[in-house]
Amino acid sequence: MRTVNMHEAKTHLSRLVDQAAKGEPFLIARAGKPLVKVVAIDSPPAKKIQRIGFMAGQMSIPDDFDEMGREEIEKMFYGDDV
Fold first, then answer.
1. Residue 9: how many CB atoms within 10 A of its CB?
2. Are 20 and 38 in contact (CB under 8 A)?
3. Coil, strand, or helix at residue 1?
4. Residue 45 DSSP class
5. How far is the C-alpha of 76 from the C-alpha of 82, rounded, in Å?
6. Domain locations in the chain as residue ranges
């Protein structure tokens, strides 16, 4: 999303509003800090991406997952004395 500073927004407001109305929202910033977002009124709200469970049924976790590689990991930390 494009960010414009306050001076540029005032200078080119008409052009920027036309672009926002066509579906190209923009941010107005002051001293590099975004302050407001300009979007068309009739534009649909952005869809939130729901990622929980997006791979359900595509993989399985073994029952011994918590113990997998335990001996090798302990050897890396404690040496062969384990």
1. 20
2. yes
3. coil
4. P
5. 10
6. 2-38
**Under CATH, to which class is 2-38 assigned?**
alpha beta
Please report, for residues 14, 28, 35, the alpha-carbon distance to residue 31 in angstroms, rounded to integers and kept in the order given: 22, 10, 10
Say if residues 19 and 26 touch (Cβ distance below 8 Å).
yes
Global model pTM greater than 0.85: no
CA–CA dist 79, 15 (Å, integer): 68
CB 15 within 8 A of CB 21: no
Tell which residue, 26, 21, 20, has the closest CA to residue 3: 26
Read off the pLDDT of residues 14-71 as tens digits, 9 standing for 90 and up.
999 999 999 899 999 999 899 999 999 875 666 777 778 888 888 888 898 889 999 9
